[in-house]
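Archive entry. Fields below.
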Amino acid sequence: MSTTLFNLQQDHIAQLQRAYTAILTDQGFDSLAIYSGHASVHFADDHMPPFQTYGHFMHWVGLADVQHSWLIIQPHQRPQLYLYAPADFWHLPKHLPEEPWVAEFDVHFCSDKISPPLVGNAAVIGDIERLTSNAQQALAAEKQPEPLVKALDEIRLFKTPYEIACVREANRLAIAGHQASQAAFIGASSELDIHLAYLAASRQRESNVPYQNIIGMNSYAGVLHYQHYDLSAPKQRYSLLVDAGRRFRGYCADITRTYAGPDAPSLFGELVTAMHGLKDELVRCVSPGVSFVSLHEQMHRHLADILVAHDLFQGTAEQAVAEGVTRAFCPHGLGHSLGLQVHDVAGLRHSDGSPAPAPDNHPALRLTRTLAPGMVVTIEPGLYFIEMLLAPLRQTSLPINWRLVDRLSPCGGIRIEDNVAVTESGFDNLTS
Ligand code: GLY
Ligand code: MN
Ligand code: MN
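PREDICTED_STRUCTURE:
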């Protein structure tokens, strides 16, 4: 472990102690129990789906796979971790990492599933609906108090230097996977083989990925969250889109790259280059005080410029935005907050906790905040040929070059996604 991460983590825990003490005191709570959550076995079986520890629990310990465990936080007290560690010869017991947070906690290994010890006016948060009804009734605490959860979400939105270092490290590991994916595509591999090359190079098993790898070739590059992997490579190789991440100590990378294949029209390669340029330009605009909604609108204006410059739209860029043409070519938002969750908390609220929903004409936007130092966001402009969205435009007289659209549609689409921290003076691209 590097000294830097060691010191940064100590500072992170100290900052969490201060923030939780202030919030619990302010809201009149003497203790808070945070439940890790747990996975349920498949019906009538003993296998479980992949699991992710509750975010506010991970915020302290950085472990994404802790189940049936409790964290007790009290103002000005050492955190108490009740770690479920049954005597079990079927499984390896959970080992604690050699990280400085461990020395700051009192750790209790529990051979049974416990009810957390609470004192005074207590609150409990986490996925407690999954507990048995007896276990839920035993919790003498206010359950999921909304002002408390919102206040804790708010501190998650602003990352400490330790958290930013973790996202950077997650990016470094994920980039190795992306490089291997590109090489596998050049070598005419199938989607499944590209997926396996990604996992191997980014050093992770599939059950640990922060979200299911999106690895789509040809028209599947235009399926936004494509979830299938073809076992054999297609005869014609037009395109590959890889949207894949990595966790490091709980923190996520969320990176997308798109490649033109040997059978793509040269225009597709030019559009990939243009979309890289658009991503870089939008990253350079990341700065404190910038409205993410405005940045999203800027993406649409520049996407319109790209459509016009490449003869896909034969009117003006202003018309392409005003008539909803750019929204048909890019139906998702510019990006989202990134942290312990890929789509991290508090993106659609004001700082006082009141709702800040996405604009009516951009319903998929997941972040409406004004950028401020410590936020980490994705910047992920896209350009797709999705017939379901383009079909209504075919019924209009809008000057869309359908001949070119039809030539490009076997390429599916393009998304380029980087992870960016907002600094005091601008931005820090964690992906580059
Ligand atoms: N990988 C999911 C997203 O980019 O939001
Ligand atoms: Mn992504
Ligand atoms: Mn994303």
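CURATOR_NOTE: The chain has a mean pLDDT of 97.
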